[in-house]
């Protein structure tokens, strides 16, 4: 299962994925919880190296695909894992198919992959689940969030203060 999280830069995709990745219920549910930052390079060997390094907490000096696959097989060992691939830009479907095939062949039942990307195209290539699109808050939602965080429930009905606060929210 691959869940893509999509939205413009800075909108909170990585933060949302981190909240899931770090949640104690998630950590307890999966045998391995892994985080790999991909960015603009989608070099399968380097991604596999990173997965191995995160899983073992040791440097991986392997470079040949065959030995990387064997080590990945040993490390993942059909365990149920959650893998977050953060900031994926690759739109090459063949590369992703090869990567997905490799990851799925070593996945235990119930394993999951979360992919964060700015691109709907990447999400449609990589995702097996409907994409989760993060968008900007509208003015009312922004005001509600700002109001809760800045004032809590203890705000007095100070019209001048509320006017200044609403002006700040409009500029965000």
Describe it:
This protein is an alpha/beta fold. The chain folds into two domains: 2-133, Rossmann fold; 139-171, no CATH class. Helix content is 51%, strand content 17%. It has eight helices and five strands; from the N terminus they run βααβααβαβαβαα. Helix 5 links the parallel strand 3 and strand 4. The longest helix has 13 residues, at 44-56. It is elongated, with a radius of gyration of 20 Å. It starts with a strand and ends with a helix.
Briefly say what this structure is.
GO terms for molecular function: ADP binding. The chain has 172 residues and is an alpha/beta fold.
Task: Strand order, main sheet: write it out.
Answer: 2-3-4-1-5
Just give the CATH class of the largest domain.
Alpha Beta
Number of helices: 8
The biggest beta sheet is recorded as: 5 strands, parallel
- Spell the H/E element sequence: EHHEHHEHEHEHH
Radius of gyration over all CA atoms, rounded: 20 Å
Q: CATH topology of the largest domain, what is it called?
A: Rossmann fold
- Count structural domains: 2
Q: Provide the helix percentage.
A: 40-55%
Low-pLDDT regions: none
**Shape descriptor:** elongated
Provide the β-strand percentage band. 15-25%
Organism: Triticum turgidum subsp. durum (Durum wheat)
GO molecular function, one term: ADP binding
InterPro entries: NB-ARC (IPR002182), P-loop_NTPase (IPR027417)
GO biological process, one term: defense response
């Amino acid at each position: 299962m691959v869940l893509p999280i999509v939205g413009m830069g800075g909108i909170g995709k990585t933060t949302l994925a981190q909240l899931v990745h770090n949640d104690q219920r998630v950590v307890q549910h999966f045998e391995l919880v892994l985080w790999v930052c991909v960015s603009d390079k989608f070099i399968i060997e380097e991604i596999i190296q990173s997965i191995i390094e995160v899983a073992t907490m040791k440097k991986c000096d392997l470079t040949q695909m065959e030995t990387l696959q064997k080590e990945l097989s040993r490390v993942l060992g059909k365990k149920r894992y959650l893998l977050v691939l953060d900031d994926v830009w690759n739109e090459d479907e063949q590369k992703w198919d090869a990567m997905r095939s490799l990851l799925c062949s070593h996945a235990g039942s119930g394993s999951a992959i979360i992919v964060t990307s700015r691109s709907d195209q990447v999400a449609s290539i990589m995702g097996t689940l409907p994409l989760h699109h993060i968008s900007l808050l509208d003015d009312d939602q922004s005001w509600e969030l700002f109001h809760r965080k800045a004032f809590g429930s203890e705000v007095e009905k100070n019209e001048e203060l509320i006017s200044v606060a609403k002006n700040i929210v409009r500029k965000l």
